[in-house]
Each structure stands twice: as structure tokens, then as C-alpha cells.
Amino acid sequence: MKRGKLFVLSGPSGVGKSTILKDLAQRQEFYFSVSATTRDPRPGEENGVHYHFHTAEEFQKLIEENALLEWAEYVGNYYGTPAKYVDEAMESGRNVILDIEVQGAGQVKESRPEAVRIFIAPPSWEELERRLTERGTDTAEKIEKRLARAKEEFESAKNYDYIVVNTTVKAAVCELEAIMIAEHCRPAERIAMIENTMK
Ligand code: 5GP
User: Fold this and answer.
1) Beta strand pairing call for 116-121 and 162-165
2) Per residue in 35-47, pLDDT tens?
3) Which alpha helices (DSSP H) does 55-168 contain, by range?
4) Which of 95, 110, 148, 179 gets the most CB atoms within 10 Å of its CB?
5) In testing the pocket of ligand 1, which one of 8, 22, 40, 74 has its CB within 8 Å of the most ligand atoms?
6) How far is the centre of ligand 1, averaged over its atoms, from the C-alpha of 62 (Å)?
7) Is pTM beyond 0.85 here?
């Protein structure tokens, strides 16, 4: 069985990663890694679907048990990727997508250098501010903190393998799909296939 690929998606809060992933799921089969977090659920968010919601003590235990592929602090809360499900999905041949911030993406690059990292950028700073504010899920103070963090995150964009600009969801999904397809055409994956068929 061919192992699935690991795709790491980062980008500032409010850039539209969740919407893009929802649309991408209509076009590509993948396993979306549900993260562990200590932040409170937003209205409509379900435990085990959007996040695994934990207390700080529970999260600390996950770290101590080495159960997380990566973890980071983000605007006063902890977020981490449960390693077990990622490995299981990849073993079963499925592509895996992580939606994680840049520090966590850096950790994944260390432990899984083959991971493909994609940075999602907004079309402009004003648009990012507008999206974050209109989403209405955060207090003014949290929005300020998320925007400050976004400024730092832009600095890391150049270290990613790809940058997708979310001008429209449709275009961003097309680009993301193209990246996923292209990554499966790399010689490391294709060479065994041609060697077998050319015998
Ligand atoms: P939000 O609170 O808006 O759902 O997420 C805040 C930030 O945390 C986003 O940039 C998101 O990509 C990131 N994030 C979500 N899950 C994880 C995770 O498991 N690990 C890390 N490092 N970041 C995460």
C-alpha cells in the first residue's frame, strides 16, 4: 500500500483556511487532522469534529505522553496535532492535511521533512482585518492579538513550499488541488510505477 502524503496548511487567522478546506473536500479525498486545543469552543463547534477540546491539564498530559506530533501556544491557548490518527491515515494511503500555525509547521518540517507546506495568504491586509472582524467570533482584544500574530506569520511565508493567495475561495481551492495532484507526480512516487510498467 502506497503511503499517503502529509500537507501542512498555515496562514493568518481569518484568512479562510476552514472554508477552503470545506470546499476542497468536495473535490479531493483527504483526512483532516482534528487538533487538540485548550481554547473554548465557538458557537457551532463540536468536540471531535472541529477540535478535541481539552483543559490545560489534559493538554499537558498529551505533551508528556508524547501523543502530539507538534504543538504550540497561540494567542493564549495551546493547540496540537494528535500523532496517532495522522500516522494511521497515512499508513492507509490517505493524504493528510494539517491546519496549523507556523511554529507547529516548523516542528513538522523537522520531524517529517517530506511534508509539503503551503501558506495561505489574504489578498491584502485590509481584507484580512475585515474578515477577522466580520467573523464576529473574537473580542476586539483577541482580534488585535491575532492580527499581531499574523504580521509575524507573514515573515515565515517565504520558507513554505507554496503560497496560495485567497483572492476567491474558488481560485484558492483550484490552486490547492493542483498542488496536491502535482505532488503525486514527483519521481519519488512515480518512478516505481513506470519501472513496473516498462518491464
Ligand atoms: P482558531 O482558534 O482560529 O481555530 O486557530 C488559531 C490558529 O491555531 C490557526 O492559525 C490554526 O491554524 C492554528 N492551529 C489549529 N490547530 C493547530 C494545531 O494542532 N497545532 C498548531 N500548531 N496550530 C494549530
Assistant:
1) parallel
2) 999 999 999 999 9
3) 56-64, 83-91, 102-111, 125-135, 140-156
4) 95
5) 74
6) 16
7) yes
